[in-house]
Amino acid sequence: MADEKSVPPAEGEGSAPPPEGTKEQEGGQQPPAGEPKKEEGQNGVPESYADFKLPEGLTLDAALNTEFKGVAKALGLSQEKAQQVVDLYSKNLKAQAEGQAAEFQKLHEGWKAETLKALGADSEKQLAFAAKAREKFGNDEFTKFMDETKMGEHPEVVQFMVRVGKAISEDTLVEGKNGTEEKSHAERIYGAGKK
Question: Taking the model in full, what pTM does it have?
Answer without folding.
Answer: 0.51
